[in-house]
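Why does this matter for the project? Reviewers at the last site visit asked to see concrete outputs rather than summary tables. In response, this paragraph embeds two records directly. Each consists of the residue sequence and, immediately after it, the corresponding structure tokens. Nothing has been edited or filtered.
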Amino acid sequence: MTLLHTTLGPRRADELGMILPHEHVFVDLRTPDQPGYAEADPADVIRLMGPQIAAIKAQGVTALVECSTGGVGLRVDIDLAVSRATGLPIVVATGNYREPWIPEWVRGASEAELEAWMRRELTVGVGDTGVRAAWIKLSAGDDGITPLEARILRAAARASAATGAVIGSHTIRGRVVMDQLDIIEAEGGRADRFISIHTQEEKDFGLNVAVAARGAFIEYDHVGRAPDDEVAGLILRALDAGLAGQLLISHDLGWYDPARPGGGVPRPYTHLSDVMLPLLAARGVPEATLRQLTVDNPFMAFAR
């Protein structure tokens, strides 16, 4: 049975509805060597982020994908505390971000050690939280994959092939995504278990289509961060190109930032439901397609 692993346990497709596939509850964009990195009181995170999650639950959102990963403050214990306090399942990742957000232990680990670490977090749990990671989150440099990033990716591809977990990567250039897919396939992984995160940042739409043609998911995760007409136009263009089954849409918003007093000021996760989906419907996108984008595709991408 295909299941989505969450902080509140595995969920079947029929137990879920709308899923936000790219958001953040807790992020620290300082590098891991900085004093106070990723430190926060879970109760303070609940105080700040609880109302944001209550707002999307009221809209019918049934799960949220936490896209923080190693190197940028992944705290699954905090995600678990927030999830228990709000009753919203949160989907967490294993893996690590790009340089220079790579801790020393990852720099010194072999590919085999990195693969074993990811496989354990995908099958047993992240650290001592007991929460299984559902997926692997990585990144690559804007101008190309560094040797260290390639080592992490090769390990991730093997872990993905062994577990069925999807790999998502913060990668800005479409040509770099194509290089990542080459590496994944060379290691026995599959392109259809890859998410090109921030696909909208590649302005050559032909490369968006080319990545999807390899089998990968593409993700437009700037809802509420870019002008609505611009976002809607890009989504419509992807739908016209036949990419409805491989498209994910989200905000990439939140979040509690431990580098800021009180965690900073969060940005809501509500724009997709409040504005973008009605706008797409008004422009002729059928209800069945909107459901595919917000319910079916996220489950298919992250479940295994």
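We now turn to the second protein, recorded in exactly the same manner.
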Amino acid sequence: MRTYKIAICEDDENQNAHLAEMIQKSCTVLSDENSRYEITDKFYSYDDAIKALSSNCADIYFLDIQLSDNPDDANGIELANFIRNQQENAQIIFMTTHDELALLTFERQIEALDYIIKNDNEEKIQAKISRDLEKASTKITEFSQSQADLFTYQVGNGFYRININDIYYISTTPFPHRLKIVANNEVGEFTGDIKNVQDEVPKFIKVSQSYLVNMENIARVDLKKRLIIFPSGEEIQFAFSAKRKIKQYFEK
């Protein structure tokens, strides 16, 4: 079961408690055997939230834009900026009594899921909370699925991401713990172990001690010569022991 963790940051204690009640109502209605929504944190200031969120993040955030009556104090927009830097996929819903403050979030380039105006009637706010929770969980799921389709590898101090569907094969090199990645319009080398890559990308088939192949990107197979030919025209030879599983793959 997937649990979506929710955090609230509202400096007014009464409004914080009331917002939590409304969110809990929506959580109760939306939770089922496959997913549940749970309020895990309630904060009353920017500083409290920063301390907690530095080590323990939520998934969905309800943030008051004005966290203090003092205009010099850090506000919800700055908190959202901190969260966004920590979590690319954080789902942020702003709460405000002044809808014009929403323009400030655009200036800071913070992508918010929604804006809830505190002065709206309670029925409308409740409906928006439920809709936002559903929308947030959908976005979180979509992001997770998109990440699952990416292969990340490290070269020196840099990290690179490539769509798994674009990879032709990953192979060993003459150098220990050094692997080669060949993809559509991309070739590179990185430090790694081919067994670990196989565990990470189980859809690739190990056709020899040296090669992990993305079978979906094979242009042609010559079973007699034990050759795999890629769209680029490059050929690699597969082991005799892999002949059966390659044949079975194409017969499916």
